Amino acid sequence: MRMNRRIFGAISAISLLVSLLMVAVWIRSLRHLDDVSLASSRQYLDVTSVEGSLCIRRLRCDHDYWNRRTTYASGHLSQLKYNLGNFEWRVLGFGYSSHPVPGGAGVLLPAKVVLIPHWFAIAAGCVMPGFWLHGYRRRSIAAYRKTHGLCPRCGYDLRASAERCPECGDDLQRLIHQVVSCVREMWRVLVARIPSQATGLNGTRESDSQLHRHVGSIRPSTIPSYVNGCVRSAWM
Questions:
Q1: Kind of pairing, strands 94-102 and 69-76?
Q2: Residue 193 pLDDT > 60
């Protein structure tokens, strides 16, 4: 779980950096045109950033047509004349077209052109960081309420009433029963897999009736130690 969380955090950080880079590209595109093209023997990809949009063109040919190369071109909009072409449809900055374009020696090359606004690329890059930030906030709030004896649902102080929250009415004993049920199921799995080493909290094998007796005595503050005790005793 922690490893998955770290991987998700690393991907979110990379996504955030890409979004910040796209913001810089967006600002630059208001006055400059930047064009990057990648060519292989049978495919040609061109990406143009201009006036708040990314224009992506993809051309292909059934036989060897281009030389392998990577090129970059840039210029101020006041000194350039450019045309992104005609689009079959164009809505809210998005556009698409699919039609052949003339090439050398009378060859028609199938081409697809996609127009994407910069703001959409920036918003898409902020999705994963947003989920990470939301999860981090939830974990921080849960950890704070746990250490300060607060209601896990609304954050009300439960030092005077540990059975039921007087603010939101959340039944803490019901929550405890659910947690203990999960622990009991986990306990059964451990006992089934390592019957020679699985022991109870008191050093002996515990039956279901003994586990049920723990339900009445457990309190919210003792749930972590109870779970840790079950797991630890199974491996001792």
A1: unpaired
A2: no
| Residue 8: burial class (beta carbons within 10 Å; 0-12, 13-18, 19+) | middle
**Same structural domain for residues 112 and 193?**
no
SS3 162: coil
Q: How many domains does the chain have?
A: 2
C-alpha 208/C-alpha 32 separation (Å) is 73
How far is CA 3 from each of CA 26, 129, 137, rounded to the nearest angstrom? 34, 17, 19
What counts of helices (H) and strands (E) characterise the chain?
6, 7
Q: Is residue 221 part of a domain?
A: yes
| Interval 145-182: pLDDT, tens | 878 878 777 777 777 766 677 777 666 555 666 666 77
Tell me, yes or no, whether 11 and 98 share the same domain. Answer: yes
**28 burial via Cβ count (<10 Å: 0-12, 13-18, 19+):** middle
Give bridge partners of residue 164 from the DSSP assignment. Answer: 171
> Position 61: which residue type?
C
Domain span at residue 164 reads 159-234
